[in-house]
Each structure stands twice: as structure tokens, then as C-alpha cells.
Amino acid sequence: MENAIQEAKRARFSDALNGISLYGRLFVKTAIRPIAVVEVVGYMGLVLTLFYLINPQDPLLMMLSFPWPWLVATALALRYGALLGVLAGLLIVGDWEWLYHGYEGTGPQVFPVMTMAGGLIQVILVGHVRDVWANTAVRANGVNGYLNDHLASLTTAHFLLRNSHDRLERDLFTRPTTLRGALEQMREVVPLEEEGKGMQGLLNAQTMLDMVAMICQLNAAAIYPVGRNGQIMEVPVAHLGSLLPLNRHDMVLHDCLDNQMLAHLKTVDADRLGTYYVAAPIAISSGELVGVLVVSDINFMSLNHDNMQLLLVLLDYYGDSLQQQQLVFPVHQSLPQCPFRFAAELERISHLKRLYDVDSSLVALRVPRTGSGDLQYQQLTRQLRALDLIWQIQGDQSHIAIFLMPLTTKDGIMGYLRRVETQLKQNFGTTLAEAEINSYSLPIRSEGGGMDLKSLYDQVRVW
Q: Which run of H or of E encompasses 131?
């Protein structure tokens, strides 16, 4: 099972160009999409045939003042890149050799070296610009995708915080616990498993269902897994109360699956009610549906908007934990004490480095435990940017802070350390060296962020 999991991870996050030489990278796009070669040959053949039909005495229109065949080759270089643009140019050269060699008419007898060389240079330059901007666009899309995922996580966290504040302001009659307490319990539903165990499917679904049923007062419910084809499995992975056969034709269930949103009896016609009062999706943060919760018996007072919102929040929290669980497993193998969120974010940006070569870094600061050192440490830990995360370690002789800085290069690390030293001079009149604050930075490599974090952690601990 462990080998299958590792193979799946490599299949998803492997580097498509890994192990390919510099010359091999020039032909990789052609190997990935061989039909492009056929398209270029077909387009050039069609155009050259059209030129021949227009003027059989001068098929390449060499007697005109503008090189029209090279305009077509330039357009193909813009579409397919420099390599296939050169192929189009070579087809023009070959066409001249075929049609003009030994020509008896009024056309040119000598090979037009300057025209052909100029056309090839033009095609190469245009194709190179196209390749550069295509690679830039791919990198930009990767960065934007990561930022969108981070924004979605922040939005979810803000929603949870707002709901927790609202619940604590009121005495809820239908709920025996607060949202804050519910989330604290939900964190224990999906604990880190031992190696090779519990790394697939709906982990601890029965425990999660029992907890959700207690918080939201559900009397009878079941959780059914959903396959990658969107079909619900017949056998539930967890159930509570009386287990009824799966009713695939229930309107509440249909509404939930079609919209991938929580559905209840108020959202369907009263004359079309079926087996279930509530149906809620279980999806991971990428949006993939992995399960569905159906409720066949619920207290009347619990069927309200606030309770349904709480149910959906708990299921979303559980779904996010399913995906992050697989991310943090490699990190916790080497550093089990690493915070869950820190480890999950580390693996996400490590995958970003592997796929799109986007640089990120780890920075560690070690501050001595003295009167002024404690104040300096508090000042340093408050200097976090929007995307940064911190792991704080308390030692006997010193404070240790490890910062995870996504999208930060070596220059960015130097700028951060200069800002830290500026703050120390302004607030304490000292520098990093004078305060005996040791710093260490390490770029996150594509092989795995867990190894980089372990290397940095070992370096900090031996200071």
C-alpha cells in the first residue's frame, strides 16, 4: 500500500523534464505533442501548393518585393515555437531546391542565400520570443494558482472565525457545544497515522459522524463514499441509527450532488420528499467530491439555517484535513513535532517548486533567553508577511523561530534580515551580531520540503 501511495505522489508531482539533457529539452515539446509536426508540414504544404497554383512560373513568389512564404513560417513560429518554426523554414528551402533547381524560365538561378538566411533568422527570433513568454505564462499560472489556493484557505478561516464569534455571543438551545469546541474536537478526528496506515479514503468516518451527530443532533445518518466518476458507492463507510438502503432517486440527494452544496427538505418541493431530510457533500479543498452525508432522522428544532451551516462547516473542515493529511505525512516522518499547518504548507510550496520552479525559503532565528532577548524574540515573531508561517521552539538556553516564506528568493531573505536588523537598531539599539542572534536560511528544493526542514532543524539545534 505504501508503494502505491508513493507512486501516486510521483505520478502527480513528478518533473516531466527530469533527467533530460539540454539538447533533449529543445525537442521535448515535439515529443509531447508530435501532431504539431504534422500540422506544420500540412500548413506549409497547403500554402506552398496555393502559391504554386497562383504563379507556376515563380512558386515561391521570389520575384515579388515581399517574401510571403516567410510570413507563413513566422506565423507558425509564433504558434508552435522556434523549433517547429525552423522546420517550416527548412520546408521553404527544400521547396526552392525542388522547384527552382535547374529552372529554365525567368526565375532566379542562384540560391538566394540572403533571403533564406534572413527568413530563418527571423523565424528563430520570433519562435524564441514565443517560447520565453510561454514559459513565463506557465510560471505565472503556477504562482497564481498557489495564491488562489491560499486565498481560499484564508477565506475559510475567516468564515470559521466569524461563525465562532457569533455562536459564542448567543446561548444556542439546539446545540450542546460551541463552534470553537467543535473544531477542537474535529482536529482529533483525523490524527496522523503510522506509516502505511490510513492514508486513503474517508479516514475515521465513523468517529467524525458520531461527533457531528452529537453537535448537530442527528438521530440517523450515513456517510457514503463517492468514486472519481461521481457515482455513490452502495455500502456506507459509517452510519448512525437505523441504516436504510441507499435511495439514489431521492430529490434531496439529487439536489446535493447536482450543485455540490448542502440540501435539505426546504430546498425541494414538498410533494417530492423522499427518504432523506438533509444531504451534505464532503469535498477536499481542491473541490473534488469524495463523499456525501445523508440524514434520515433529525430533531425538528435542529433543522434550521444555523445548524445546517455548522454541519457544512464541520464537513468542509474534515474534507480539508483529508487532503492535508497526505501532504504532511512525509514531513512528520522526520519531524513528528512539526505543527500540522506548517507541515502542510511546506509540502504545498515544495510541490510548487517541483512543478513550476518557483522559489521559496526557510529561515531560522535563534535568540538567547535573556531579559532583552525575550523582548527581541517577541518583536521578531511579530514581523510576518501575509503568506509567512512560523514554528516556534522553546529551548533551555534560547528561543528558536523557523519561518516558512513562500515565493521568497535569496534576495528576499537578505531583505528580510536587513529589516530585522533595522527594527533591532530602532527599538533596542543593537544588531543581530551584537544581540547574539544567529540566523540561517535554506532554499526549498523540489525533492521534498521535509528534508530541507530537517536539515535546517538539525543545524539550528546544534548551534
A: helix 113-169
Same domain for 99 and 220?
A: no
Reported pTM: 0.46
Output the CA–CA distances (angstroms, integers) from residue 150 to 58, 79, 387, in the order listed.
Answer: 61, 33, 8
Residue pLDDT, tens place only, 314-343: 887 787 667 766 667 778 888 888 888 888
Residues 319 and 384 in one domain: no
List helix spans (H) across 15-112: 22-26, 28-32, 35-54, 68-80, 82-100
Provide φ and ψ at 439, rounded to 5°. Answer: -125, 150
Q: Are 241 and 297 in contact (CB under 8 A)?
A: yes
pLDDT of residue 16: 38
CATH number at residue 213: 3.30.450.40
Same domain, 321 and 203: yes
Q: Are residues 275 and 210 in the same domain?
A: yes
What pLDDT does 89 receive?
Answer: 84
Strand partners, 405: 361
In this prediction, residue 194 has a pLDDT band, given cuts at 50, 70 and 90, of: very low
Residue 205 grid coordinates: 468516518
Burial of residue 174, with CB atoms counted within 10 A of its CB: 0-12 exposed, 13-18 middle, 19 or more buried: middle
> Closest Cα partner for 30 from 21, 40, 19?
40
Q: Are 142 and 355 in contact (CB under 8 A)?
A: yes
Cβ-based neighbours of 95, under 8 Å, separated by 6 or more: 48, 59, 60, 69
The whole-angstrom separation of Cα 206 and Cα 197 is 17
DSSP string across 142-162: HHHHHHHHHHHHHHHHHHHHH
Does residue 36 belong to any structural domain of this protein? yes
Q: CA 153, CA 287: separation in Å to the nearest integer?
A: 12
**Number of neighbouring beta carbons within 10 Å of residue 159:** 13
**What whole-number distance in Å separates Cα of residue 372 and Cα of residue 429?**
11
The last residue of one of the domains, among 310, 329, 348, is 329
Q: Are 222 and 239 in contact (CB under 8 A)?
A: yes
Rounded Cα distance, 76 and 74, in Å? 5
Residue 257 and residue 406 in one domain = no
Residues 108 and 183 in one domain: no
CA–CA dist 49, 304 (Å, integer): 72
- For 389, the enclosing helix (H) or strand (E) is strand 389-394
Q: Which domain holds residue 443?
A: 335-461
Q: Taking a C-beta distance cutoff of 8 angstroms, is the pair 57, 106 a contact?
A: yes
Residue ending a domain, among 275, 306, 329, is 329
